Predict the structure.
Amino acid sequence: MHPRFYAAQTGTDPLASPAEVLAHFRAEGKAAGARVTALFQPAFYCAAAAAAAVPVEGDPFEHWLAVGVERRIVPTPLYDDAHYRAHHPELRDDRWAFVDYATDGCYRLDRRPTAYVQSYGARVPERARERQDPVLLTGMLHRAGEFDLRTTSWLEEGIAAVAAKVERLASGPVADLVARAVAIEPAIGEAPLAMRTASWPPHLHWDSLTVAAAEDLRRSLPVGQADAVVFLPDDGSAAGVDLPGLVLEVACTDAAASAAPHAVDLRPFLDRLGPRQRVQVVLDLVRGVRPGRVVVLENVLGTRMLARYGRPLANTMTVAGRVDGEKVGLAGFVEAQRRRDEGA
Amino acid sequence: MTDITAVMTGHNEGELLVTSWRSMLAAADHARAAGLTVDFVVMLDRPDDATLATAEVVRDRARVEVLDLGDHGIVRNEAIGLAEGEYVAFLDGDDLWSENWLTAAYDVCRADPDRVVAHPALNWFFEGQSNLFFIADQDDPDFYAGAFLRVANPWDQLCMASRALHLAYPYPARDLAVGYAYVDWSWNLATVEAGCVHRVVEDTIHFKRRRSTSQLTLAQAASTIPWPSALHSWGEQPSG
């Protein structure tokens, strides 16, 4: 039961409880063909059942609950039983590993359900288990408006496309090319095809959602260029700086949200991204609006970005700000981040 | 004029150079069978003794140059200056091509020699990594190459393009002191900005040996970014 995924199909409250979602599904969603769980794809299940010589009669989801679960038929391309078990040998042998994934693994970044990139560098949503909000929803709901989520999604389509590419490597002329290369360098063939991870930008690539967030931010920005970018204090305290020209104010927290004419609230764009991806987005922002000056004031994300990329940025803009009450330049951001990393 | 100059670059690959050389010869044989002419240039930048010694086995077939540059982008520029082929293809001295690479990439490049940069359809990593990286075609409607290039690099330097294109857009120097590296990423930005098109060549593969001292690893460790490009500028791109 995945309320946010269900809500994207039906317009219900994405924060609804699983019980509320189930009630709505029984009353309306089922008849409309909505999927109540992200881990069930009707067409995939029917094909998998047919491959297992299990005829599907009636509603595929009900059939899976009644028959497919007992027969251990995987109902989604988002999960590969052999891959999951091979990468998580600590799982009990007597239990269907898919149950582990559905109840635990799908809320963790260290679980790899298939050979294909799925998390896109996303972070685990807050209270993910409680809200039944699996990590892979970030990929499934990407460009959601372009898909009929009742049947498929960006992530499922991406996996199908990459799986087809990998399958082409297993036979025919491409397999012959691989064999010829292996004859020259045997190490090429050491890892079996089935155990290789695969990616393909943008369909399955760890930077795809970072790119999408950066592009969404760019398109929403009121200006294409700024004289200065100011990262506002995370605690909402006054910036206390008066800079000439067009100043783009950047807020990263609830408290810092600003009503200034050229202010941007980054939270909607960064919400689902992990720390590295967030830095990439704000780096793109700072390079993108080409300011002469970047000022970071008691701002965690801005500090992290300048500590890592301040040196090349300083070739084209001045870099300054405040950390822990002290005025700092580039070296100060690097030192502050070093202290934070050590503390973490 | 020679159709293709196949360039191999080396540094500290030692005997692995022979493996890559055999792959290069196989690809050249495939191209010759298709009626193309191929010659070879081997560029050794600050080679260690083992690599220098190993390179002796190719001297009867290839022009071998020993350099002291310490910058793989500049090494490639030097190679392009020496190349006699109408098209130039690069191979790292520890990697391999699928044997159809030169032939198939040549066909793709010839369609628009002044604009097309050809890439394999797949980077097949081995030794240390076992992932498959399918490469994006710039015109894939889902790809949004301009936006993707701002944040990440989809193409490496093991490409084929016309010598004229390479001469028009030389690789930038790496400058770790000021924080600009990612020579391949910078070159991709520059070529896309100039209107070149990065094409994937179907059913071709580069087999890439992943070593911890790769240029990418060095660039990441140094917290560098690619050289500035107009593609980075948010104000110069289409609005929503």
